[in-house]
Write a structure and sequence with these properties.
The structure is a single chain. It contains 4 helices and 7 strands. It is α+β, with helices and mostly antiparallel strands. Strands 1-7-6-5-4-3-2 form a 7-stranded antiparallel β-sheet.
Length: 144
């Protein structure tokens, strides 16, 4: 029997040849944000709610090869052009897949921006890996 971690954390860094306000703005805009999710999570519908403020909530529904996953988001901290912290519950039909805390930092680096995303997932199960097409998550859990 394979021991499965109940908590998994990973960090993803990307550099963008764009100023910090532009990169941050792409996360602050509901339509652009759904494209961020779609880039790593399959085809995503537009953000529902799109309440980008501390305490604000939204929902993004993505269609994966394994079926739909709904991401319920609650914003905990927002420092314009610097940091976003949110809680995310990932739900597949009839089951909770995972819950996580995500911190996104926007660091000025020369003329561009370094984006650092840290995610800590709690209560991760093998089911989460079967429905979330998230390679960093799978690698952090030791399944890649």
């Amino acid at each position: 029997m394979t021991h499965f971690p109940r908590t998994v954390a990973y960090t993803v860094e990307r550099f963008f040849s764009a100023p910090r306000p532009l990169v941050f703005g792409a996360w602050a805009d509901p339509v652009a944000r759904s494209l961020w999710f779609g880039a790593v999570s399959g085809t995503c519908a537009a953000v529902k709610g799109g309440d980008f403020r501390i305490g604000g909530q939204e929902q993004i529904v993505c269609e994966h090869d394994t079926g739909p996953v709904t991401y319920d988001i609650l914003y905990r901290a927002i420092i314009p052009n610097e940091t976003i912290v949110y809680e995310c519950r990932s739900l597949a039909p009839e089951s909770r897949v995972a819950s996580s805390v995500v911190t996104v930092e926007f660091r000025q680096e020369g003329e561009g921006t370094r984006l650092v995303l840290r995610e800590k997932l709690n209560h991760v199960t093998p089911h989460a890996l079967s429905v979330l097409p998230n390679e960093p998550l799978k690698a952090a859990a030791g399944f890649c």
